[in-house]
Amino acid sequence: MSLFKARDWWSTVLGEKEEFDQGCLCLADVDNTGNGQDKVIVGSFMGYLRIFDPHPVKTGDGAQAEDLLLEVHLRDPILQVEVGKFVSGTEMLHLAVLHSRKLCVYSVSGSLGNVEHGTQYQIKLMYEHNLQRTACNMTYGSFGGVKGRDLICIQSMDGMLMVFEQESYAFGRFLPGSLLPGPLAYSSRTDSFITVSSCRQVESYKYQVLAFATDADKRQETEQQKLGSGKRLVVDWTLNIGEQALDICIVSFNQSASSVFVLGERNFFCLKDNGQIRFMKKLDCSPSCFLPYCSVSEGTINTLIGNHNNMLHVYQDVTLKWATQLPHIPVAVRVGCLHDLKGVIVTLSDDGHLQCSYLGTDPSLFQAPKVESRELNYDELDIELKELQKIIKDVNKSQGVWPMTEREDDLKVSAVVSPNFDSVSQSTDVEVGADLVPSVTVKVTLQNRVTLQKIRLSVYVQPPLVLTCDQFTFEFMAPEMTRTVGFSVYLKGSYLPPELEGNAVVSYSRPTDRNPEGIPRVSQCKFRLPLKLICLPGQPSKTASHKLTIDTNKSPVSLLSLFPGFANQSEDDQVNVMGFRFLGGSRVTLLASKTSQRYRIQSEQFEDLWLITNELIIRLQEYFEKQGIKDFACSFSGSMPLQEYFELIDHHFERIYFDLVSYLMLLKLGLKEVNKIPSFFSNHVPVLHTCTEKLRINGEKLEELLSERAVQFRAIQRRLLTRFKDKTPAPLQHLDTLLDGTYKQQLET
Q1: Is residue 228 domain-resident?
Q2: Is residue 54, in this structure, part of any structural domain at all?
Q3: Is 303 found in the same domain as 161?
Q4: Which of 98, 236, 361, 612 could form a disulfide with 80 if both were Cys (CB 3.0 to 4.6 A apart)?
Q5: Is 443 a member of any domain?
């Protein structure tokens, strides 16, 4: 616990099971009283808007009923609340509330009541803007140097900046190369918007450049825009900070200088107006929010930084000046003047803990009592020490938590895989194809030396391998008792398992004199399944799309010795090529060099190489161990096939994406059950987001390629038309062939 705890001045808990974020807190004189006292404005993702005016009777009191000035449910989730001059014709402050698809501006006013309940507050909707795109955050300011009013800029989830001149929509611009939205702030001194892109770069865009850039009605560029209609949006300056940003704040020293503060995941940065680093500070803990403000007395900048360790640090530039303990993790922090108390720190947690506090310490009033002095009897202490040592020695000799005198295992677990397949296959409801799917029996034997209880045997194999039974339970086993259980393993699925190794895990309790309930312990053993369970002999192939070469330091071994049963024994007992056909239909060829110490594995599908490669290495190691050779080693000298690996992952994601889309279509048509939606989406929604973003990027690339080919097609048409209109016949110079090829490329795109 920190000695310097934040002194609780006023606190409350907002709602039940509501969620909040950094944009949900704002401090301002929203009702325009003019007395310099701020109100606490909080919006939640549940759509509740609350305005507080804390008046604690004494320090540390909770919220009273009269502290809540207004509470209204706006139905839509509240992403951000701000206060400014948002209504034309007046310089009064108004409240702007950002929803995901709507921007609303309200006036907050209070009227004196006729009874003793005091002033009644209400909000009135001045205007609202329905957004065509999903909003992320917003900022406001005197864009373009306007006087006496504030304009609002909203950033959408797809990177579009929408500028509103109070009651009217001004324009919208897409930020170049935007993938994910970042924090957004406005610098009035340079008249520019500053954000952090998904490339981890701080970027600055001039308002004038945004205003005169090409309109963002469509994301892609048209032919007229390429020919010069409108100006291209260019960045003013960029700075690579190498990490994602949590928030951006801009603080002005005076009229001639300002600083841009960026809070990263591990650092916070102070930048000049032109993007140069003024200073940076590496943080010891993961930050959650921050608030820079000018230090009036010393002319420097102080920064409040909250972190996930419930701490609030106060930095003066890069020097830590104060550290205080909070009762929660803050996601938003503000400083204001409440009830004639300046510099009150207001913090908000993600689950609705709102606290107004100030910095300070509590003096310790505890005084240690005086110890009564008495003479020590060393003879009695010596006798007591010997008795304690004897007790400790007896406990170590007796059966404790881990018996020290017994070195043998309480339970021995062994597994035996049958060398032959089951006469009647146990495979049911398989999805492999036309091949007959075999099954093999595995027997697990338990041999205990002492009394055991609550024995539970669990067996695991890699999917799509399945077991006829994977759980076995025994309540009690007497000493020197043997139990054997059997089960079958078979392939269920058209893809390959990552390995053929299974694991049998036994959990049990061993009772002792001191613990009759038993000491929980675990024992396990592993077993290997035969390759023939998922693979059959096949015809070798001379050519393949994917190849892998394994180098060894020993002479090549006949493949017949390594894989008996997968090839017919020849006269010279030397087999250097062997084919494998998996039950799913794919084929793999294994070749052993006659002259060099190499083995090659090749297949038409990249993912089929691993299982045979792993099996080859294991069998080579077992072969040379039987020969008494211990220095056998395998190596791979080629380049890592990362491109094929990444393409395989992309293909897997795309397949899941299309499965999800198909599922949603069937669900919309009423062909799927609604009660299966939660479990289905909980496993695949992150993949859906990844695939959607990738397909969007690929779609943009295809649109750009199609546009280029359309320009080429029209250019060829013009040249052909010129040749046909010419009075003097001239050769076409293969323009007709080029036209036909371009047309086919367009159809393919």
Answers
A1: no
A2: yes
A3: yes
A4: 98
A5: yes
- On the 0-12 / 13-18 / 19+ scale of CB atoms within 10 A, 445 is middle
Residues facing residue 40 across a β-bridge: 27, 52
CATH, residue 118: 2.130.10.10
**Distance in angstroms (rounded) separating the CA atoms of residues 3 and 322:** 11
d(CA 685, CA 661): 11
Question: What is the per-residue pLDDT for 250?
Answer: 92
141-179 as b/e, with b when 16 or more CB fall inside 10 Å? bbbeeeeebbbbbbbbebbbbbbbbbeeebbbbbbeebe
Which residues span the domain enclosing 75? 6-215+233-359
Closest CA to 499 of 522, 465, 475, 532: 465
pLDDT-derived band at 689, boundaries 50, 70, 90 = low
pLDDT over threshold 50, residue 159: yes
Given a cut of 70, whether residue 206 has pLDDT beyond it is yes
Q: What 8-state DSSP symbol labels residue 372?
A: P
Query: Could you tell me if 319 and 209 lie in one domain?
Result: yes
Q: Residue 14 in contact with residue 354, Cβ under 8 Å?
A: yes
- Confidence class of residue 367 from pLDDT cuts 50, 70 and 90? low
Same domain, 193 and 323: yes
Q: Within this chain, do residues 517 and 540 fall inside the same structural domain, yes or no?
A: no
- Check pLDDT > 90 for residue 26: yes
Indicate whether 522 and 546 sit together in one domain.
Answer: no
The percent of residues above 70 in pLDDT, for the chain, comes to 84
- Dump the DSSP string for 646-690: HHHHHHHHHHHHHHHHHHHHHHHTT-S-GGGHHHHHHHHHHHHHH
Q: With left for phi above 0 and alpha for psi between -120 and 50, is residue 354 left, alpha or beta?
A: beta
Pick from 497, 531, 565: which residue ends a domain? 531
The whole-number average pLDDT for the span 560-578 is 70
Average pLDDT, the chain: 83
Domain count, the chain: 4
148 with 197, same domain: the answer is yes
Which residues, at least 6 apart from 266, have a Cβ–Cβ distance to it below 8 Å?
Answer: 243, 282, 283, 286
What is the mean pLDDT of the segment spanning 182-200? 92
CATH number for the domain harbouring residue 488: 2.60.40.10
Section 42-55 average pLDDT: 92
The last residue of one of the domains, among 319, 338, 359, is 359
Residue 331: both structure tokens together: 């996601």
> Around Cβ 204, how many Cβ atoms within 10 Å?
20
Model-wide pTM > 0.70: no
509-524 average pLDDT score: 80
Which pLDDT belongs to residue 254?
65
Contacts (Cβ under 8 Å, ≥6 apart) of 344? 9, 335, 336, 337, 338, 356, 357, 358
282: in domain: yes
- Measured in degrees and rounded to the nearest 5, phi and psi for residue 691 equal -70, -35
Q: Give tens-digit pLDDT for 231-260.
A: 678 899 999 999 999 999 998 766 667 889
Choice among 38-42, 249-253, 383-387, 723-727 with the minimum mean pLDDT: 723-727
Maximum separation of any 2 CA atoms in the chain, in Å: 132
User: Would you state the pLDDT for residue 395?
Assistant: 73
For the record, the structure tokens of 165 come out as: 């001149």
Q: What six digits make up the tokens of 388?
A: 């304690």
CB 581 within 8 A of CB 532: no
Q: For the residues 273-291, what does the mean pLDDT come to?
A: 91
Reduce the DSSP state of residue 698 to 3 states and report it.
Answer: helix
Q: Per-residue confidence at 101, pLDDT binned at 50, 70, 90?
A: very high
Tokens 């969007």 correspond to: 696
User: How many other C-beta atoms lie within 10 A of the C-beta of residue 648?
Assistant: 13
Q: Measured on CA atoms in the order 414, 418, 424, 429, is the torsion positive or negative?
A: positive
- Is 290 in the same domain as 186? yes
Tell me the CATH number at 572: 3.30.310
**pLDDT tens per residue across span 619-629:** 888 888 888 88
